[in-house]
Write a structure and sequence with these properties.
- The complex is a heterodimer of chains A (about 350) and B (about 800).
- Chain A is an alpha+beta fold.
- In chain A, a hairpin with a 4-residue loop joins strand 16 and strand 17.
- Chain A starts with a strand and ends with a helix.
- In chain A, the strands form 4 sheets. Chain A has a 6-stranded mixed beta sheet with strand order 6-7-8-3-9-10, with helices on both faces. Chain A has a 5-stranded antiparallel beta sheet with strand order 13-12-11-14-20.
- In chain B, helix 15 crosses helix 25 and helix 26 crosses helix 36.
- Chain B is globular, with a radius of gyration of 35 Å.
- The chains are: A alpha+beta (about 350), B mainly alpha (about 800).
- At the A-B interface, strand 6, helix 2 and helix 4 of A face helix 21 and helix 22 of B.
Chain lengths: ~350, ~800
């Protein structure tokens, strides 16, 4: 078990700055997710923790040990970390057992102990019967488990996972998600997990660090971030959200471009941005704050997905079954925002939503 | 199955049937023609063309000249006829055969035949009217001419006449048969007033064609009877070519039939034509010659015998050469790979100083003609005057004895072979390392392995297949190299199989058989290596596809960075810089024994010579043309093949791919030998001693170089890019022009140069195939080195080197840095 301390780490490749002034401390046994769109710098951060990249400035500590700073640099093999790569990186010229045994062989562990540890690691990922196969004879999901077993076999204090599930299909991804989480809880190790998949992040993390353009946007538990996004980017990246321009006044906010209001009891005045999540709107044929037209409805099984036009805005709504059944396209519908978030109007939403590539 | 389907199947069957009939027809026709030609006793197939020409001209002469003249003169045509018939038996020994040519003819037809016979006879074997006299006769006035014709006709019918000069003087001293023959010639000359008669060239060709007796009579008869029409002439004079063509066509139809049968899809596709053309080309110019070589050496006199082979392989000199070749190739392989792997790793995967420069240098030496390196090392390590030896002697006070190093030895040969062939392994291994997913190594590092352990346990085993493939490539290249042993081995009496082969070829036709026998060894070795390397690469190829594009994993050498850079620099200095500098310096010296800076020893004379001498420039022109033609044809084949390999499931694509690979791994000397054997007309193709035989040899050897580039580019273009264009409504042609073409064009350019460059400086095959007028720059250089002047050869070598470097630079620019060699 180990903490990770990152102190104002900046990383630039040539002129291009990919991370700036990154500072965080990951607690013992914590499951941390670095989340963000592709190119945001999350993988670079992970590779710096692993020791594959050197920070341009700043320092990184694992436990109490400085592993990377201006003066010190500890190469990856001396950091005692486990890591799973997106491409699995399972060595094709070794069998499954040889792959898993490798880290122990490097440590010159006695053969009998290696065999026992390998067996245990393979059992924990349900691959015992595949020990003597070559990776080319395994499916993607199985290869992924080999990579996981190999990362865990040496009982690392810290486990790094670089988008480990992105090459798997949806069903397998979901089950692997829980398996990884379970192993982490059992072993109590610190995990740093990199992903661009918000569902993955929500499901597994103790804390999420949301990064965009090399800058931390928000740090918090999944719930904190989902319920109280620090800015429109966070609100938009995590979960679904629609933005509406409005003007706040005493007791109510007018939706721009319409003569409709929603109730409001906060302190903000003037031009604002309303951010509202579809599952926090009530749709009804006859009662509600806003009047709109049902533009489309989709039955998705677990949810009823509707889009309602209010003035210029198209608002996405998860409808209750009875309203969904009674309304058809083109009907007028009424909306009530049970909960919503307000952001200052001057924030350049369009800009910040753009994903840096 | 609906009607349209049935119709298309029917059409397909019909087409195949027609092609088959055509093929059978060609074979039978060719065989018939060939038999005619053999039966007639001719030694040359083109005799029939000559006979055809002659009979045409004789017919024309009779029709346009004689008939009108006779009519105008009012002479007695009966007496002329009698005179002709009485003349003929005197000329031919074989009367019966001759007279049978006149059987059943009467009137005008008989007369025409007789006159034609006369014409042909006197054209070939009578006393001749000289050109000046003929011109004098032609200058006569209309009136004089009529008189002359009257006189001649009278003379021919037996009267004693006196002709006016110049005709009169021609008849002086001739009697009976000869007199009448001369009269006939004068007549024919006279009636043919434009003076063309039958041209001297035609006559001499005809004489050559019918040198044998049997042939002569057949030829006369054929010429006189005008029996040859264009079709017969074609069949007879191109019999063997037609048989070859027909056989190929039949083979193609058979292949096509088998493929279609296997596919159960009776639809004809234009693509078949392309693939079959390529296969035909390879069969004719590669497989057939190889089989000939094999057959001729195992069946020396048409009967199976190992006697010649046994004698050849127990000959002490040959045995020594065999052992030398094997030792040299094995040592070169081991040494080369031992150098190449660490170099490839240091240059490709570490933070060595100046990696890019080193990489460029090592890869560039791949493109240097082998003999240039040999020449350089000869200058450096000559036991008496080698610069390096002189230096070592003065450093260690060894006095004036020869040595300490001697390039004229087996170790010397191995060293030079290694310095030239290690880049082959270097490039193969580098490519594998570049393709390897770097996270495989990162996973090892994170598992606790040091960079060195990672190299030994992950990088090395992962690249093993390429390592072995590279090593085998070095082995076979070293074993079949001629340029280096010819320059180093021969003077030092270190013979190799290739130098022995060329030696034997130099001894004429007997030596040719021995050369073939030795060639067998190289061929067997090459096939063995090909199978071995194919097996290894196919069985153990670890293709690892990484999910995202990854930066290559650079290992920090830390404390080792400086010492290792120094080591690599030293290596580059010894292997590249010093040899090439030696070449340059030598090319600027007047006296080889003195220092460049000795007074008066610096000269540009050699350079001026090579840049101004017509012979050198002619060779340069030849090299440029041959290489450009080979590269252009080669790249066309490469593009078609790469399309077939990656975009179609057409059958036969694997076969042609295999043949091309086989061709490129066949030793140059063997390719040249087999072409000499089979392209001298025995199979209906006679291109011996022409530029074509050289170009075809180049193509077979180097086509692969260009094809590999284009094929790998094509494999990287996902088919969806083309499909997307077609979905968007673009036709196939448009898709090729707008999407595929631009995407592969850099590789096509690169492939062109990759074929062009080795063809440009080729030596081994050219040595065997050149003729006057088809010498190349590589051969010219070799001649200068061996017989004339080493400094001139060095100037030429350095010029070639510069040219290759410049080409490489152009290529790099042209493809925006994507490709260089």
């Amino acid at each position: 078990m180990s903490t990770v301390t990152i102190r104002s780490v900046t990383k630039a490749f040539g002129e291009q700055k990919v991370l700036s002034e990154f500072s965080q401390t990951f607690g013992d046994g914590e499951f941390i997710t670095l989340l963000g769109p592709s190119g945001c710098g999350k993988t670079t951060m992970l590779r710096m923790i692993a020791g594959f990249e050197k920070p341009t400035s700043g320092e990184i500590l694992i436990g109490d040990q400085v592993v990377s700073s201006d003066r010190v640099f500890i190469p990856p093999e001396k950091r005692g970390i486990g890591m799973v790569f997106q491409s699995y990186a399972v060595w094709p010229h070794m069998t499954v057992a040889e792959n898993v045994a490798y880290p122990l062989k490097i440590r010159k562990m006695p053969k009998a102990e290696i065999a026992a540890e390998v067996a245990r690691a393979l059992a924990s990922v349900h691959l015992s019967q595949y020990a003597d196969r070559l990776p080319s004879q395994l499916s993607g999901g199985q290869q992924q488990r080999v990579a996981l077993a190999r990362a865990l076999v040496g009982h690392p204090k810290l486990l790094l996972l670089d988008e480990p599930l992105s090459n798997l299909d949806a069903k397998l991804r979901e089950s692997m998600r829980f398996e990884i989480k379970e192993i982490q809880t059992q072993l109590g190790i610190t995990v740093v997990y990199v992903t661009h998949d918000q569902t993955e992040a929500m499901a597994m993390s103790d804390r999420i660090i949301l990064i965009n353009r090399g800058v931390i946007q928000q740090v918090g538990t999944p719930q904190e971030i989902y319920d109280h996004p620090a800015n429109p980017f966070v609100a938009d990246f995590l979960g679904k959200v629609d933005f509406l321009a409005g003007e706040a006044e005493e007791g109510r906010i007018r939706i721009s471009g319409t003569d409709q209001w929603i109730p409001w009891h906060g302190a903000e005045r003037g031009r604002v941005q309303i951010a509202v999540r579809p599952e926090r709107i009530t749709l009804s044929p006859d009662s509600g704050d806003l009047d709109g037209t049902l533009e489309s409805k989709y039955y998705l099984g677990d949810v009823n997905d509707c889009r309602v036009r209010v003035g210029e805005n198209l608002i996405r709504v998860i409808a209750p079954p009875e309203s969904f059944a009674s309304l058809s396209r083109g009907d007028s519908a009424r909306l009530t925002f049970r909960e919503f978030m307000l952001f200052p109007a001057d924030e350049r939403l369009e800009d910040s939503l753009k994903i840096m590539t | 199955m609906d009607k349209a389907d049935k119709r298309s199947i029917l059409r397909c069957h019909l087409t195949l049937m027609l092609l088959m009939v055509l093929g059978i027809g060609l074979v039978l026709g060719g065989l018939w023609g060939n038999r005619q030609y053999t039966d007639a006793g001719f030694t040359q197939e083109n005799a029939f063309s000559v006979i055809q020409n002659l009979s045409d001209e004789a017919g024309r002469l009779y029709r346009d000249g004689l008939i009108p003249a006779l009519a105008a003169s009012g002479a007695d045509s009966g007496s002329l006829e009698a005179a002709s018939v009485s003349l003929l038996p005197g000329v031919w020994k074989d009367e019966e055969r001759l007279l049978s040519a006149l059987d059943g003819l009467t009137g005008e037809a008989l007369k025409e035949r007789q006159l034609r016979l006369l014409e042909v006879t006197w054209a070939v074997s009578g006393p001749s009217v000289k050109a000046t006299q003929r011109r004098a006769l032609a200058a006569l006035s209309e009136e004089d001419m009529n008189r002359l014709v009257q006189g001649v006709l009278a003379g021919l019918s037996g009267q004693d006449v006196t002709l006016p000069d110049p005709a009169g003087s021609l008849l002086e001293g001739l009697d009976s048969a000869d007199r009448r023959a001369m009269l006939a010639q004068i007549l024919l000359t006279a009636v043919n007033r434009d003076g063309t008669y039958i041209t001297a060239d035609t006559v001499s060709e005809f004489k050559k064609a019918i040198r044998t007796d049997g042939g002569r009579i057949t030829g006369w008869i054929w010429a006189a009877s005008g029996r040859m029409n264009l079709f017969t002439r074609l069949l007879c004079s191109a019999g063997k070519s037609l048989v070859l063509l027909g056989a190929l066509l039949l083979l193609d139809v058979a292949l096509l039939f088998i493929w279609l049968l296997a596919d159960r899809n009776w639809k004809l596709d234009f693509k078949w034509v392309a693939i079959l053309l390529i296969i035909d080309f390879l069969l004719t110019f590669q497989v057939l010659p190889m089989l000939t070589l094999l057959f001729r050496s195992l069946f020396p006199d048409g009967q199976f015998s190992l006697q010649a082979i046994t004698r050849l392989y127990t000959n002490e000199l040959n045995l020594g050469a065999l052992v030398n070749t094997l030792i040299a190739a094995t040592c070169t392989m081991l040494l080369g790979t031992l150098i190449a792997f660490p170099l490839a790793w240091l240059v490709g995967r570490t933070n060595l100083y100046g990696r890019k420069l080193f990489r460029l240098l090592f890869i560039l030496s791949y493109m240097v003609p082998p003999y240039v390196g040999a020449m350089a090392w000869l200058r450096l390590l000559n036991p008496n005057v080698g610069d390096l030896n002189l230096l070592l002697r003065s450093l260690f006070g060894l006095g004036d004895t020869p040595g300490p190093l001697n390039v004229y030895s087996l170790p010397g040969l191995i060293w030079v072979l290694t310095t030239f062939y290690y880049p082959y392994a270097f490039i193969t291994i580098s490519r594998a390392m570049e393709k390897m997913d770097p996270t495989l190594e990162e996973a090892s590092r994170i598992a606790g392995a040091s960079p060195l352990t990672t190299v030994m346990k992950i990088t090395l085993p992962m690249t093993t297949p390429s390592l072995i493939a590279g090593a085998l490539l070095v082995f076979i290249s070293a074993a079949s190299c001629y340029g280096i042993p010819s320059i180093i081995g021969v003077p030092g009496r270190v013979h190799t199989v290739t130098t022995r082969i060329i030696d034997y070829v130099g001894r004429g036709s007997d030596g040719m058989n021995d050369a073939m026998g030795l060639g067998l060894f190289l061929m067997a070795l090459a096939i063995l290596i090909l199978l071995l390397s194919d097996g290894i690469v196919a069985r153990k190829q670890y293709i690892t596809v990484s999910g995202k594009s990854t930066r290559p994993n650079i290992v920090d050498l830390r404390g080792w960075r400086r010492p290792l850079t120094a080591l690599v620099t030293l290596f580059a200095l010894i292997v590249i810089v010093i040899p090439f500098a030696t070449i340059l310096v030598t090319s600027l010296k007047t006296d080889l024994g003195k220092s460049l800076f000795a007074p008066g020893n610096f000269t540009l004379g050699q350079w001026r010579l090579i840049l101004s001498r017509a012979e050198v420039l002619d060779c340069l022109k030849n090299s440029l043309i041959f290489a450009a033609v080979a590269a252009t044809v080669g790249i066309l084949i490469a593009v078609v093949m790469s399309y077939m390999l990656h975009r179609t499931r057409i059958r036969g694509r694997k076969l042609s791919d295999f043949l091309i690979t086989l061709g490129s791994s066949t030793p140059s000397v063997v390719i040249a030998l087999s072409l000499i054997l089979s392209m001298r007309g025995d199979y209906g193709i006679d291109i011996y001693q022409t530029a074509w035989i050289i170009i075809i040899a180049y193509l077979i050897k180097y086509l692969m170089m260009g094809m590999r580039t284009v094929v790998s580019a094509m494999s990287q273009i996902h088919a969806s890019l083309e499909e997307c264009s077609q979905i968007a409504g673009a036709s196939w042609t448009r898709t090729m022009l707008r999407i595929t073409g631009p995407l592969i064009s850099p590789s096509v350019a690169a492939g062109w140069f990759l074929i062009f460059i080795p063809c440009f400086y080729e030596l081994s095959m050219t040595t065997l195939l050149y003729a006057n007028g088809t010498k190349t720059i590589g051969f010219e250089l070799y001649e200068y080195w061996s017989f004339t002047s080493q400094p001139v050869a060095c100037a030429l070598a350095f010029a070639i080197l510069l040219f290759v470097v410049i080409l490489n630079f152009v290529l790099n620019r042209l493809t925006k840095g994507e490709f260089s060699i």
